[in-house]
Amino acid sequence: MAKQIRSPLPGIFYRRPAPDQPPFVEDGGSVEAGTVVGLVEVMKSFHEVVAEEAGTNVRFVAENEQPITVGVVLAEMD
Amino acid sequence: MDLSGRKLFIANRGEIAVRINRAAKSLGMTVAQGYSEADGDMLAVRLADQAVEIGPPHATKSYLDIVRVVEAAKSAGADAVHPGYGFLSENAEFAAAVEAAGMIFVGPSAETIARMGDKAKAREAAEAAGVPIAPGSDGRVETVEDAIEAAKGIGYPLMIKAAAGGGGRGIRVADNDDDLKRLVPQARSEAEAAFGDGGLYLERMIAHARHVEVQILGDGQSAVHLFERECSLQRRRQKVWEEAPAACLPQATRERICAVSVRLAEAVGYRGAGTLEYLYDPERDAFYFMEMNTRIQVEHPVTEMVTGADLVAEMIRIAFGEPLRFEQSGIALSGHAIEVRVNAEDPASNFMPFPGVAQKMRVPENVRFDTMLYEGYAIPPFYDSLIGKLIVHGSSREEALQKLREALAEMEIEGLKTTLPLYRALADDPDVQADNTTTKFLEAWLETNAIKAA
User: Fold this and answer.
1) Residue B272 sits in which domain range?
2) B358-383 pLDDT, tens per residue?
3) Based on the structure, what is the number of domains in chain A?
4) Best mutation site among B352, B372, B379, B386 for testing chain A: the one with the most A CBs within 10 Å?
5) Which one of B58, B190, B372 would you mutate to disrupt binding with A, by most A Cβ within 10 Å of its Cβ?
6) Strand (E) positions, B265-419?
7) Model-level ipTM above the cut of 0.85
8) Which of A27, B39, B46, B329 satisfies CB 3.0 to 4.6 Å to B35 for a cystine?
9) Which of B66, B85, B106 is the last residue of a domain?
C-alpha cells in the first residue's frame, strides 16, 4: 500500500516556499524522514509539513493553495 | 440625517463585521454581508438582512478580490460599502472602484488613502503640518549609497521601513553601514514582493518608546480628536492590549499631541475615522509621528468607552455627507478603558493557532465583549485568529485594571485555546500595574514568564 503524507493542521496548503520559487518536492521526487514537503497557512501563520518517513515517487494529491482540513492526505508515495 | 432603509454592504468578516452591523442597525440601515465559502456560518451573516457569497476561502480570492467584492455590493443594491479593518480597508484602488460603481466608500477618498498610506509621503505631510517626526530620510532612499548618506544625519541604530508597508511588516534594524549594505537590498526585494512597491525610507530607532495614537474624526472640512490610546503591549509588532487614555502622558503633552493630530487631519482634508500613530519617548517627553491608519482600528472600543462616541456610526454618517456632529469642546474624557484581544491561540505552545469549535461561553456582566463567537461556532483556519475583544471601563486606571482582573477570572470559552491566560498573568504583573512598559516589554516578559501565561 502506498505511504501517505497527511496534514497536521487545517488551513491553506502551499507546495512552494514562495510563489516565485520551485516546489519543496517535485512530483515523482523522493523524501527522507523530516523533509519539508509544503507549508500550511493557518490563521496567517505558516507551518512546515514534514514527511514522517522516507519515500519515493511522491505524488501530490492536494493542489497548491488548496484549503485543507486536519488529516487530509496531501501526497502519496512508495 | 435619516439613513433608515439605506443599505450598507459589509466587506469584512469576524468581530468587526458584527460591530459594523450593530452600528448600521442603530442608524436604521439595512445590512448586506459579504462572505467567503468558509464563512457561511459566521455570526455577521446570521445578523445580516442579506448575505452575498464572494468566493473561495483564501482571502486573496474573496475578501481581497476588488472586482468580486464590488460586484457583490452592487448586486445587493448597496448604497455604501464599509471595509472594516485589514483586507481592502486601506486600498485606494478599492475605494475608487466602489465610488466608480456608484456607491459610497465608508472612509476617506482614494487620494487620501494613497497619500497617507504611503509612509514616506505621510511623513512629508506630517512634517509640512508641523507634526514632529523621528529623524529620518528625506522621502525615499533609492540606493545603498543614498541610504548610507542619509544615515549620517539620522544616526544609528535606525529602522529600514517599506514605504508601502504598515502594521510593522518589513521593518529591519541597522546598527551600522555594513548592516545597511546588507539589509537595504533585502528589504527592497521583500517590499517589492509583499506590497508591489520596493520603496524604502529610514527612520531613527527610538529606544524605550511607548506606542501612543490619536483618534481623529473628520468630515473633509474640519476635524476633531477623541483623545489618545496607549498600545505598547505588542507581540511580533501586533498590539494585544490597549488603553485609553495614555496614562503615561503629562496633560500638556496630551493636549499637544491631540492638537497637532487635528492639524494634520485638517491639512489633508481628512474625511472619516482615522488614527495617527506616534512613538512617545517618556525620558525626553517627546513624541514622533510614525504613520496614519485611514480606517477604523481594532482597538477603537477603548476610545468609545472613555468618550461615549460610536465611532463606527459616526464614520457611516460622515460618509453619507453629514457634517461632524461634535465640537471639540463637547468631547470629554471620562475614566479609563482597557481592551485585551482574545485570540484563538495557545499561549502554552508558542501561540500556536487553534481554530477549534467554541463551546459553552461564560462572559461576565458589566463588560463589553465584541466578538464573532457563538456556542457551536467552528472557527475557520483561513483568517486572523482574533475572536473577540474584552473591554472594561473604570473611573481610574486602577479601577479598570481591577475590573479587568475580575472579568478575566470569570470569563470562560470552552472548546478553544485562547490568549485569556496571558492576560490574567499580565493583569497581575507589577510592571503592567505600574504602567511601566514599552513596545519591547511584552516579548522580553514572555521570555521569562511564559509559564505564567500558559
Assistant:
1) 210-449
2) 999 999 999 999 999 999 999 999 99
3) 1
4) B352
5) B58
6) 271-281, 286-293, 336-343, 345-346, 352-353, 361-362, 368-371, 386-394, 412-413
7) no
8) B39
9) B106
